[in-house]
Amino acid sequence: MAIKLLAGKPVMSVQVLSETANIMRRKLGFDLSAISAVINRISQECSSLQPLTLDTLNSGLNIAGRYGFSHYDSLIIAAALQADCSTLYSEDMQHGQIIERRLLIVNPFL
Fold first, then answer.
1. Phi, psi (rounded to 5 degrees) for 88
2. Which of 7, 63, 79, 100 is 20 to 30 A from residue 70's alpha carbon, by CA?
3. Taking the model in full, what pTM does it have?
4. Positions of the chain with pLDDT under 50
């Protein structure tokens, strides 16, 4: 399913790439060159990358307070909202939840 989503040229937050790199390094034991290659490959499949900015951070803090998401999930949500996305694919967040009346969270693995 992840490959199919990437084939659709999604918008992706740099936070998602950062979390991917962290998991690859810390939990899976990949070396830095392999992580870099994967991150670069994934980023090439995206229509755009949504950066983390001070506005993203402030919006993320607001989302965390309002909805109770973790800090890092809130950054991903904030980035999706800033990019005017209507769907956020995540296996870790509540499937079907709507954020700010305009962003639907979908677990693509259900």
1. -120, 120
2. 7
3. 0.92
4. none
